[in-house]
C-alpha cells in the first residue's frame, strides 16, 4: 500500500473548497437580509445569523438539519406566529414550493419588527427564504463559518491506520488501526511479510480498489518502482471509503497512512451541494452583493450587482480593485457623478473607517435609485449591498402627495367627516362637518369630546326638543351596537345621514351627509314605482295590490267588485299618423275621462301601452256595464290632435268578483277573455265575461297549437280562382287562395285560421310558403298572372322584398306575371314604411293591387300615395247589388274612380249573369267569382284555362 508522491498539494486542494465555503459563509452572514436554505427534504442546509436575529430564534434549535416544521414551531413559541395558524401556514407554503412557485409575504414579529419573506425554489432542488427587516436595516452576522469550523474539528480528530515497508518491499511495522480498518489477520500481515502478500491478503478480506485486483497490483508495483507519491481511494470490505497516502523514505522504504474518509467524502459532497445552493441563493437575491478584502479588492459578487453597474463577468474577476470597478461602471454608462472614481473611493474608505453602514443613495442613468451600504468586517474587508429602491422612493413621494391630497380632499368633501378615538374625542374633522351643523371652529377641534360638541349643538337649537346629555347618552348606546347608520332630523328641516365605521385600532370614522333632497327624491321614486309616469295613474303593480285588497274585502265582508279592462282601438294609427307626442296626449285625455267617471273609492290604472283598467265597487254587473257603456261613448269622440280629427274607440272586458272568482289572476284572465270577445265583435263595444268564453279560448288555443304544426305536416294546399277581363272575357290570371285540411278537423275555414296566424306571427312563414308555391306553380302556366295576398304582418317583418325576389328567381317566373294583393289594413299600420316597400316591389316589375277596397278604413289618400295597378271591390258590395242602393253607389263610384285614375277595377264575388251585367255597366274592367269558376287545385288549372278559352271563343 505505497505511494511515492507528497500529499501537500492535495492538502492545499482540500483547503480550497473549505476556504471558499468559509469565505462565502462570511459574506452571507454579513448580508443585511436573513437567508435560510432548505434541501429537498425541507431541512436546513444553510442559515445565516441575520435570519436568527430577525426572528429572535435560538441557534440551538434552528440549525443545519432542523426541519422547516420545527422552525415554524420555534417561531410559534417566540410569539411570532399564532399557534392556530401554523398548520395552515406550513401547508400553504410547502404546496407553493412543491409547485415551483416563488412568492413573497410579510410578517409582523412579536418584537414589532416587520419582516418581508421571499421564498424561492432552487434549481438544484430545495428552496431558500430571504428575509429583510423593512422596519430598519441591521448588520448581517455569520453562522456558516461556525458550522465549517465544527466540520474541520471533526475531521482533525479522526484516527489513521499506518503501515511501513523497507527497501525490499517488506513490512517493517503496522498499527492496530490499520489491521482493524481492513479486518486483516495479524498473523499474516506482520513484519517481514512482502508487500505483495499483504496486497493479496487485503484483497481476500473483501477490500477492493476502483480497478480489478490485477490492475491494482500492477499500479502499486509501478508506484513503488517510480517512487510515485499519490493519494489513492479504496473501498473497505463493508463499503466504507479509505484514503491512502504514501511517503517514500531516503532508504528506499515508504510509509503509507490509511484514513477512513467515508464521512469526509460525504461531507465534501454535501459541501459541494451547499456551494451550489449558496451560489443559487446569491444569484437569486433581489439585491446586489459584493465582498471585498482588506485591500478593497473584489472577492465575490452576484449577477444582480453586475446588472446594476453594467459590468461583465470579465470586468468583475476576483482581485479587481473597487476603484477599477467604479471607473468601468461609469465608463459603461451605469451612472454619472460629479466626483472622480478616486474621490468616490476615498469617501468609501472614510465610511468604512467610521464603520458607517448607513445607506447612500446613488441615482443611475436609467432613473433608478440604488441604496448602497458598506459593512466593515472585523476580520478585515467589507460586504457591500446594492438595493434598487426606485419603487420605494416613488412610494415615499406618492405617500407625501397622498397626504397633501388627503388634506385637500378632506376639506373639499361634499360630506362632513369626523374621526373619533376610542374615548369619543375628535382626532380630525373637516370644514364641511362644522359648516353642516353651524358649529363654532373654536369649539370643534382635535381633542374636544363628542359630548361637548352635542351640548354645543343643542345650545344652537339644531336638535329640537333634545338636551346634550340625552343626545350623548343615546349616541353612546347606539355605538355599543357596533357599526350603524342613523339619520338626524334637524330643526331647519334638513335630514343628515350619519354613517359610523369602526377603525382597526379603536375609535370611529363618522361621515355626515345631507340627504334631504335624496329623501324627497326617494319619495318621488317610490311614487313613480307604483304609478304610470305619463298619466300618473296607478301602474300594474299598484293595481294588483288594490285588487288584492278589494278581493280580500269581498271575501270577508261580502259585496261585489268588477274589473274592467280597456284597450284603445286604432291607437297605433294615431301614433303612426300624428306621432307619439299626439299619442301621449290622447292617452292622458283617456286617463282623465276614466278618472272623471268613476267613484271615489274606485281605482283607475294604466297597465301599459294603450291598456287601462278599473276596479269598481257597487252592485254588479249593472254598475260595470253602465260605466263601460258611458266610457265607450265618451272615448269614441276624442278631441282634435294637431288640428286633425282622430277616430279611435275603446273595447271593454268585464269580470266580476265573487261571481267569476276571488283570485286576482283568475279574475284578470276572465276580464281579458271578455275583452278579446269585445274586440271580436268589431271593437267599440263592451263584453261581460261568460263561462263559455273559457271553452272558446281553449278551442282557439288548441287550433293555434295545430296551426303551428300544419306547415311542417304539409297540411296546407293552394287553390286558384280565375280572373277575367270584362270587355273580352279573356282569362288574365288566377288568385292563389290558401286552404288547410286538418287530419281530424277536416277543411278549416281561412276566416278562422288566418286571423289566428296573424295574431301569433305564423302568417310570416305560412305567407312565404304560399308565395313560393304559387310562383313555382304558375311558372308552368301560359302567359297569365298569379295573384298572392300579403298580410299586414308580413310588411312588419324584415326581408319581404328579398323573399319575393328569391321566390321569383327560384321559380323562374317573370316578375310581371306576379301580382301582390295588399289590404288597407297593411297601409294603416305604418303607411310610410309600407308604401316604401311597395315601391321596392314595383321596382322589381311586380304588379300591386289594393284588395277589399270599400270596407274598413278606405281612404283615397292611399291611391294618391301609391299608383296601384288594380283596385279590387269587396264581394260584400257585389253580393248585395240587388238589395242595397248604397252598394250600387259604392260600386259605381269605385269603378268611376278607377277609370279616372287609369287603374283597373276588379269586382269580386260575381256569381250570376245579373251581377256580371251590372258590374260591366258600372264600368268595372275585370271580374272574379263563381260565375267563371270556383277555386280549383293546381292540377285542374289547365282544364280551367281550356274551359275559359272555349267560353271566350263562343262569346
Automatic annotation (TrEMBL):
It catalyses: 3',3'-c-di-GMP + H2O = 5'-phosphoguanylyl(3'->5')guanosine + H(+). CDD domains: EAL, GGDEF. GO terms for biological process: cellular response to nitric oxide. Gene3D superfamilies: 3.30.70.270, EAL domain, PAS domain. Pfam families: EAL, GGDEF, PAS_7. Residues 559-691 form the GGDEF domain. InterPro entries: Biofilm_reg_signaling, EAL_dom, EAL_sf, GGDEF_dom, Nucleotide_cyclase, PAS, PAS-like_dom_sf, Rev_trsase/Diguanyl_cyclase. One of its GO terms (molecular function) is cyclic-guanylate-specific phosphodiesterase activity. Residues 700-949 form the EAL domain. This is EAL domain-containing protein.
Amino acid at each position: 500500500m505505497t505511494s511515492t508522491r507528497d500529499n501537500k498539494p492535495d492538502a492545499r486542494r482540500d483547503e480550497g473548497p473549505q476556504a471558499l465555503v468559509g469565505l462565502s459563509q462570511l459574506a452571507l452572514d454579513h448580508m443585511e437580509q436573513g437567508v435560510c436554505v432548505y434541501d429537498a427534504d425541507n431541512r436546513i442546509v444553510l442559515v445565516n445569523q441575520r435570519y436568527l436575529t430577525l426572528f429572535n430564534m435560538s441557534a440551538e434549535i434552528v440549525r443545519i438539519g432542523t426541519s422547516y416544521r420545527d422552525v415554524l414551531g420555534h417561531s410559534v413559541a417566540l410569539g411570532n406566529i399564532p399557534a392556530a395558524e401554523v398548520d395552515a401556514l406550513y401547508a400553504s407554503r410547502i404546496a407553493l414550493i412543491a409547485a415551483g412557485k416563488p412568492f413573497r409575504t410579510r410578517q409582523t414579529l412579536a418584537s414589532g419588527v416587520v419582516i418581508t419573506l421571499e421564498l424561492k425554489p432552487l434549481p438544484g432542488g430545495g428552496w431558500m427564504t430571504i428575509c429583510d427587516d423593512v422596519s430598519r436595516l441591521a448588520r448581517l452576522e455569520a453562522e456558516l463559518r461556525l458550522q465549517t469550523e465544527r466540520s474541520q474539528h471533526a475531521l482533525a480528530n479522526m484516527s489513521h491506520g499506518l503501515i511501513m515497508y523497507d527497501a525490499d518491499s517488506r513490512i517493517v511495522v503496522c498499527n492496530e488501526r490499520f489491521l482493524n480498518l481492513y479486518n486483516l489477520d495479524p498473523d499474516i500481515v506482520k513484519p517481514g511479510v512482502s508487500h505483495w502478500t499483504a496486497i493479496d491478503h487485503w484483497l481476500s478480506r473483501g477490500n477492493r480498489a476502483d480497478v480489478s485486483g490485477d490492475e491494482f497490483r500492477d499500479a502499486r508495483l509501478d508506484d513503488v518502482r517510480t517512487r510515485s507519491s499519490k493519494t489513492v481511494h479504496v473501498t473497505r470490505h463493508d463499503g466504507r471509503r479509505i484514503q491512502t497516502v504514501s511517503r517514500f523514505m531516503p532508504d528506499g522504504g515508504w510509509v503509507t497512512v490509511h484514513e477512513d474518509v467515508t464521512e469526509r467524502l460525504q461531507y465534501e459532497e454535501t459541501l459541494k451541494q451547499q456551494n451550489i445552493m449558496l451560489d443559487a441563493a446569491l444569484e437569486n437575491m433581489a439585491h446586489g452583493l459584493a465582498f471585498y478584502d482588506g485591500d478593497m479588492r473584489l472577492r465575490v459578487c452576484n449577477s444582480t450587482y453586475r446588472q446594476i453597474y453594467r459590468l461583465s463577468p470579465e470586468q468583475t474577476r476576483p482581485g479587481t480593485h473597487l476603484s477599477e470597478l467604479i471607473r468601468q461602471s461609469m465608463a459603461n454608462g451605469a451612472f454619472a457623478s460629479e466626483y472622480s472614481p478616486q474621490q468616490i473611493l476615498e469617501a468609501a474608505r472614510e465610511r468604512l473607517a467610521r464603520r458607517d453602514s448607513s445607506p447612500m443613495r446613488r441615482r443611475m442613468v436609467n432613473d433608478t435609485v440604488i441604496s448602497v451600504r458598506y459593512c466593515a468586517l472585523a476580520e478585515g474587508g467589507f460586504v457591500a449591498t446594492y438595493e434598487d429602491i426606485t419603487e420605494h422612493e416613488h412610494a415615499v413621494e406618492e405617500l407625501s402627495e397622498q397626504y397633501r391630497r388627503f388634506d385637500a380632499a378632506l376639506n373639499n368633501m361634499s360630506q362632513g367627516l369626523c374621526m373619533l378615538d376610542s374615548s369619543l374625542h375628535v382626532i380630525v374633522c373637516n370644514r364641511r362637518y362644522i359648516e353642516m351643523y353651524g358649529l363654532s371652529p373654536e369649539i370643534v377641534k382635535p381633542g374636544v369630546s363628542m359630548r361637548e360638541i352635542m351640548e354645543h349643538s343643542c345650545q344652537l337649537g339644531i336638535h329640537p326638543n333634545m338636551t346634550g346629555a340625552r343626545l350623548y347618552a343615546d349616541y353612546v348606546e347606539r355605538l355599543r351596537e357596533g357599526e350603524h347608520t342613523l339619520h338626524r332630523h334637524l330643526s331647519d328641516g334638513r335630514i343628515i345621514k350619519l354613517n359610523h365605521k369602526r377603525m382597526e385600532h379603536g375609535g370611529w370614522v363618522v361621515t355626515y351627509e345631507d340627504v334631504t333632497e335624496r329623501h324627497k327624491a326617494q319619495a318621488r321614486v317610490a311614487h313613480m314605482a307604483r304609478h304610470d309616469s305619463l298619466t300618473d295613474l296607478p301602474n300594474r303593480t299598484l293595481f294588483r295590490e288594490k285588487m288584492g285588497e278589494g278581493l280580500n274585502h269581498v271575501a270577508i265582508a261580502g259585496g261585489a267588485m268588477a274589473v274592467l279592462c280597456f284597450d284603445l282601438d286604432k291607437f297605433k294609427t294615431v301614433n303612426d299618423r300624428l306621432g307619439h307626442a299626439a299619442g301621449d296626449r290622447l292617452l292622458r285625455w283617456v286617463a282623465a275621462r276614466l278618472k272623471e267617471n268613476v267613484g271615489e273609492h274606485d281605482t283607475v290604472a294604466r297597465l301599459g301601452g294603450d291598456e287601462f283598467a278599473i276596479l269598481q265597487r257597487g252592485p254588479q254587473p249593472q254598475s260595470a256595464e253602465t260605466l263601460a257603456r258611458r266610457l265607450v261613448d265618451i272615448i269614441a269622440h276624442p278631441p282634435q290632435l294637431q288640428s286633425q280629427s282622430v277616430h279611435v274607440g275603446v273595447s271593454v272586458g268585464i269580470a266580476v268578483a265573487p261571481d267569476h272568482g276571488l283570485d286576482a289572476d283568475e279574475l284578470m284572465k276572465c276580464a281579458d277573455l271578455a275583452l278579446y270577445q269585445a274586440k271580436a265583435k268589431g271593437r267599440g263595444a263592451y263584453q261581460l265575461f261568460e263561462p263559455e268564453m273559457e271553452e272558446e279560448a281553449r278551442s282557439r288555443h288548441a287550433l293555434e297549437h295545430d296551426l303551428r304544426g300544419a306547415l311542417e305536416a304539409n297540411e296546407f294546399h293552394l287553390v286558384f280562382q280565375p280572373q277575367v277581363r270584362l270587355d273580352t272575357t279573356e282569362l288574365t290570371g288566377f288568385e292563389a287562395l290558401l286552404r288547410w285540411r286538418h287530419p281530424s278537423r277536416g277543411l278549416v275555414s281561412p276566416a278562422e285560421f288566418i286571423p289566428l296566424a296573424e295574431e301569433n306571427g305564423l302568417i310570416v312563414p305560412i305567407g312565404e310558403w304560399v308565395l313560393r308555391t304559387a310562383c313555382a306553380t304558375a311558372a308552368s302556366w301560359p302567359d297569365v298572372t298569379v295573384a298572392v295576398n300579403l298580410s299586414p304582418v308580413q310588411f312588419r317583418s324584415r326581408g319581404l322584398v328579398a323573399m319575393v325576389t328569391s321566390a321569383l328567381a327560384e321559380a323562374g317566373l317573370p316578375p310581371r306575371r306576379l301580382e301582390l294583393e295588399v289590404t288597407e289594413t297593411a297601409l294603416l299600420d305604418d303607411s310610410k314604411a309600407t308604401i316604401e316597400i311597395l315601391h321596392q316591389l314595383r321596382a322589381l316589375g311586380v304588379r300591386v293591387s289594393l284588395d277589399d277596397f270599400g270596407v274598413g278604413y278606405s281612404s283615397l289618400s292611399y291611391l294618391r300615395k301609391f299608383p296601384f295597378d288594380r283596385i279590387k271591390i269587396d264581394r260584400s258590395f257585389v253580393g248585395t247589388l240587388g238589395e242595397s242602393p248604397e252598394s250600387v253607389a259604392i260600386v259605381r263610384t269605385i269603378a268611376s274612380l278607377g277609370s279616372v285614375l287609369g287603374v283597373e277595377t276588379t269586382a269580386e264575388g260575381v256569381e250570376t249573369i245579373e251581377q256580371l251585367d251590372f258590374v260591366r255597366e258600372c264600368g268595372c274592367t275585370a271580374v272574379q267569382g263563381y260565375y267563371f269558376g270556383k277555386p280549383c287545385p293546381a292540377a285542374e288549372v289547365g282544364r280551367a284555362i281550356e274551359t275559359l278559352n272555349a267560353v271566350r271563343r263562343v262569346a
